[in-house]
Amino acid sequence: MQMTSTDRTADVVIIGAGIAGTAAAYYLAKGGAKVIVCEKGVIAGEQSSRNWGFVRQQGRDPAEIPLMMEANKIWRGLERELNADLEWLAAGNMVTFANDEEAAGWEDWRQLAQGYGLSAKILSRSELDAMIPGNALACQGAILTESDGQAEPTKVTAALARAAEGRGVEFQTNCAVFEVETTAGAVSGVVTEHGVIRAPVVVCAAGAWSGRMLRGLGLKLPQMWIKGTVARTTPGPIISHTATWTGVAFRQRRDGSFNIAQRSADHDLTIDSILNLPSFLGSFASNRRAIKLHLNRLSLDLLRGSFSKAALAKELTTYRILDPAPNMKVVNETLQTLHRLLPETKDVTIERSWAGYIDMTPDMLPTIGAVDQPSGLVLATGFSGHGFGMGPIVGRLVAELIQKGEPSLDLSAFRFSRFHDGTNLTPHSVV
Ligand SMILES: Cc1cc2nc3c(=O)[nH]c(=O)nc-3n(C[C@H](O)[C@H](O)[C@H](O)COP(=O)(O)OP(=O)(O)OC[C@H]3O[C@@H](n4cnc5c(N)ncnc54)[C@H](O)[C@@H]3O)c2cc1C
User: Which atom of ligand 1 is nearest to the CA of 388?
Assistant: First the structure.
């Protein structure tokens, strides 16, 4: 790459202003780095503002438990650190179980978590009824991790970005990165729609787009987009602030409104569905009933970008914000289920609904860390539907890796090479 007088420079360029990229920018700036974040749309326009807002250690793959325990400590002080209201509520996370087999699965996980020093309790049906009086949940009992919590996704990344800007981070919104450039096997910068930025380190935190971005570097990141639908209700009587999964997932906010969702998800078929199918056969088979397949406009639009740089550039600027239509059948069914399971919610109605594309990996684990080639490229992506809670610790670990050469927690389970070195990619997370 020839340097021109208009080229800009940074210590680190971050691709994507979701929670992963923004938290990394915040911690890097705290450590004194000059950081530029390039975002093709707006800050937290995609997954990071569209999620349920569960911040849970519960049900995590063992590899993620230490990260989430450390994340939990950060979350507890985050409102103070960022001087912002994040609607943080440390009221626990709960999952109900229907029978002895499910109860045994959760007891196994509880013991495993205990081995890491994370405490969770199995609740009998009567203990659950004492927590949520008048419920009509169809279950035998539940697991409760009291130290878990919830926060409001529309506030968290925005607050991290404000704090990062306060420390000198530059956010370039409406600025897609088209390409990561390399010189002699090392990252040398990025080509954006507004020119070149030279930097020795680039963090790819491009969420659902990471697989497409990395293809240009000859790196194959298996990723599948799954569309999740979410709805928010009007405020109702306060029933429980414990974020709960029981056929419907719900979390009741301070104002009494609920975020509600269901397990069912949609997959809009694209060329990537076919290219990545071999890596995902296992998870498709086990979630066959929960995932509905669709052919639509997106399927056609995302056809060419898989094969040409110019077409990828067009996709990145056409889809500045992935804003898929929510599945209204799911929204209506979810509300009816909420009314049935929690009769006190009978008068709440849907205030708004939305959807988001989740970036799944075959083992449902993220990829966090540097790749072998090119040097200087760090990945923080593939959070598989549970990266909101992890965001702050991921940002801190990425900064440690770049600035100290060594993260304070073991990231080996999240290495990129696991997709290509014969590692067994069976998912172990319980939820
Ligand atoms: C419906 C739903 C429910 C969820 N519920 C939960 C939950 O309860 N708890 C939980 O922990 N997690 C949950 N998640 C997952 C969580 O939201 C994500 O794992 C997390 O937000 C991922 O953050 P990210 O920064 O990696 O990606 P994103 O937030 O998707 O950000 C990536 C950004 O990169 C930008 N970008 C991409 N390519 C480029 C490019 N070439 N140039 C410039 N910018 C680019 C995109 O525009 C985007 O803004 C849920 C997700 C969804 C969709």
Answer: 11
pTM of the complete model beyond 0.90: yes
Ligand 1, CB cutoff 6 Å, lining residues: 15-21, 38-41, 45-48, 50-54, 176-177, 205-209, 213, 228, 230, 316, 356, 358, 381, 383, 385-389
CATH code for the domain of 380: 3.50.50.60
What domain count does the chain have? 1
Specify if 324 maps to a domain.
yes
Residue 367 CA to residue 415 CA, distance in Å, equals: 6
Distance CA 232, CA 250 (A): 10
Backbone angles phi, psi at 376, to 5 degrees: 90, -5
> Is 1 within a domain?
no
Testing ligand 1's pocket by substitution, the residue of 22, 388, 431 carrying the most ligand atoms inside 8 A of its CB is 388
239 domain-assigned: yes
**Residues 178-183: what's their mean pLDDT?**
97
Q: For 122-131, 220-229, 237-246, 276-285, which range has the lowest pLDDT when averaged over its residues?
A: 276-285
Q: Identify the residue whose C-alpha is closest to ligand 1 atom 3.
A: 51
Which residue minimizes the CA distance to atom 12 of ligand 1?
386
Tell me the torsion sign for CA atoms 17, 22, 25, 29.
positive
> What's 108-166 look like in SS3?
HHHHHHHHCCCCCEEEEHHHHHHHCCCCCCCCCEEEEECCCEECCHHHHHHHHHHHHHH
Look at residue 265 and tell me whether its pLDDT is greater than 80: no
pLDDT confidence of 280, banded at 50, 70, 90? confident
Residue to probe by mutation, ligand 1, list 15, 27, 47, most atoms within 8 Å of CB? 47
Question: Residue 363 is part of which domain span?
Answer: 8-419
Pocket residue to mutate for ligand 1, from 49, 51, 210, most atoms within 8 A of Cβ: 51
Q: What is the pLDDT of residues 15-41, one digit of tens each?
A: 999 999 999 999 999 999 999 999 999
